[in-house]
Amino acid sequence: MIDVQNLSKKFGDNLVLNDITTTIQKGEVVAIIGPSGSGKSTFLRCLNLLETPSSGSIEINGKNLTASKKDIHKIRQQIGMVFQHFHLFPHMTVKENLMYAPMKAKGVKKYDAEEKARQLLDRVGLAQKAAAYPNSLSGGQKQRVAIARALAMEPELMLFDEPTSALDPEMVKEVLEVMKDLAKSGMTMVVVTHEMGFAREVADRVLFLDHGILVEEGEPESFFKNPASARARDFLDKVL
Ligand code: ADP
Ligand code: MG
């Protein structure tokens, strides 16, 4: 589904992604881990063209992301993104947050958008918050709304950038549970996370980045038990 070939990204002289090549299959859950500043967010942002690669190519479903603007717009609609800091629309109710993009960008009728919003809020356990405003919600609830909002566009791929890092510890689990359900439903997911338990339990594959280099990738079991590289061992010693 995603084919990344020799992807590099520079900010000025700073080589942030260094010749990354990997593929991600449909339905796969991939966890990206690595030290702060290693390029994890930049990698995710390249996948939905929030950043433009300096060199290399990214194909999603056979479409090159450096292709025409029209294609890019379409491809982006198929990719949901969830950030560390929710980015909900503060002046809209929870339900309106979910209805906005489908109506605006896809021309979904109000009635259908509303119906879909209700289903999704139910799915993330927040049916009773449909009429609430974001600032009345807890961090965990906000993040579940953000996930539901991304799902309202019916994406084929979901990207998560440290979705639980800004949460109080007691709210991490409720968000990870929603993500786990999503993984079980067959969604293709790329998740930057510091939650090693989640990576180990839910991911099909772990990518370890360090200084912009894809140092190592593998199945969680073998990666966590027996990382091949000294850099990954060193990182795991610090975080586990
Ligand atoms: P991570 O998510 O692994 O912490 P990032 O991808 O955010 O790492 O950042 C990798 C490097 O790229 C860091 O050195 C960071 O300062 C730099 N960087 C990220 N975004 C920008 C930007 N928009 N302009 C300049 N430098 C950036
Ligand atoms: Mg980051």
UniProtKB/TrEMBL annotation:
<feature type="domain" description="ABC transporter">
    <location>
        <begin position="2"/>
        <end position="236"/>
    </location>
</feature>
<dbReference type="InterPro" id="IPR017871">
    <property type="entry name" value="ABC_transporter-like_CS"/>
</dbReference>
<keyword id="KW-0472">Membrane</keyword>
<dbReference type="GO" id="GO:0016887">
    <property type="term" value="F:ATP hydrolysis activity"/>
</dbReference>
<dbReference type="InterPro" id="IPR030679">
    <property type="entry name" value="ABC_ATPase_HisP-typ"/>
</dbReference>
<dbReference type="InterPro" id="IPR027417">
    <property type="entry name" value="P-loop_NTPase"/>
</dbReference>
<keyword id="KW-0547">Nucleotide-binding</keyword>
<dbReference type="InterPro" id="IPR003593">
    <property type="entry name" value="AAA+_ATPase"/>
</dbReference>
<dbReference type="InterPro" id="IPR050086">
    <property type="entry name" value="MetN_ABC_transporter-like"/>
</dbReference>
<dbReference type="Pfam" id="PF00005">
    <property type="entry name" value="ABC_tran"/>
</dbReference>
<dbReference type="GO" id="GO:0005886">
    <property type="term" value="C:plasma membrane"/>
</dbReference>
<dbReference type="InterPro" id="IPR003439">
    <property type="entry name" value="ABC_transporter-like_ATP-bd"/>
</dbReference>
<dbReference type="GO" id="GO:0015424">
    <property type="term" value="F:ABC-type amino acid transporter activity"/>
</dbReference>
<comment type="similarity">
    <text>Belongs to the ABC transporter superfamily.</text>
</comment>
<protein>
    <submittedName>
        <fullName>Peptide ABC transporter ATP-binding protein</fullName>
    </submittedName>
</protein>
<keyword id="KW-0067">ATP-binding</keyword>
<keyword id="KW-0029">Amino-acid transport</keyword>
<dbReference type="GO" id="GO:0005524">
    <property type="term" value="F:ATP binding"/>
</dbReference>
<keyword id="KW-0813">Transport</keyword>
<keyword id="KW-1003">Cell membrane</keyword>
